[in-house]
Amino acid sequence: MNELLFWASAIGSGSDSAFKRRATELVPTRRGAPSSFSRAIWGFNSLAHCEFGADSGEGWRVAPPVLAAGDPVGTISAVLCGARSAPLLSRLMEAAGDNVSVMGQRDGPDVVKIDLPCAGDLIRVSREARLPVQWNAPLAIMAAFVPPALSSFDQTAVPTGGWEVERFSSSKVAWVASTVAEATRSRRGLFRFKSDYDTRHIFKLAGVARHVPPGIAKYWALGRRQRAMRLDLSRGQVSFPIAARPPGLLDRALVVSSGALPVPAKGRLTYSGISAPLAAAVSASLRAIAMGADS
Question: What is the CA radius of gyration of the chain?
Fold first, then answer.
């Protein structure tokens, strides 16, 4: 993933097809895992290295480099997000000295993290390395999240024909086998239609079907009383079922808190470096998503 990030940083932006070709060349395949392209998009997006889709003009673009820091009070931790180059890393290493660490991770570029005694030290490092600082970066990301209303998505017909159909089960927090007939008669629920060439996610409410993004729609299906999120503040960790990963900016805020992608184990994804204010903001946003199904 390091080589892919260096390439993206040098190119700056491009089409999905160009990123897919390069990811396929540089990222090793792994048996039983999603494609190299899918893993690269997830990792780069979550780690705030690149923007994809509508946020980048329907292609991709690398984000400007920044030191994403937490609260400026007390000891300070910051992670390097965005574009990278050999000269940039060299400046940062020279400025931070023994206070910088580099840690590899499976589905993303190395985590470059700085730990310092106080905010003034990070300001000095940022000036010497010529890198801006974003204070309270996870909460700043959360502040940009606006839960969409179900009514903002276009109505559609339930697909018919030779689709493989699954329904998202709120009790199992997993996709379970379903049928076109069940999707057609259902008054409420999230359905996934798959074929060799396409995948569509349809959410039904009061019998009305809409084409929806699955990450958000799963929390509509889970409802206002969902308990997908588990918090362990003593360890600074929060976890979710793998099938109900927090959508979009929520995932990014949790990842940027430590600079590391969540660790999968026992059917759950565990994020680290989580503060109480961030956990509260994520929990409130998940409740707001659920309420959006009825607005």
Answer: 20
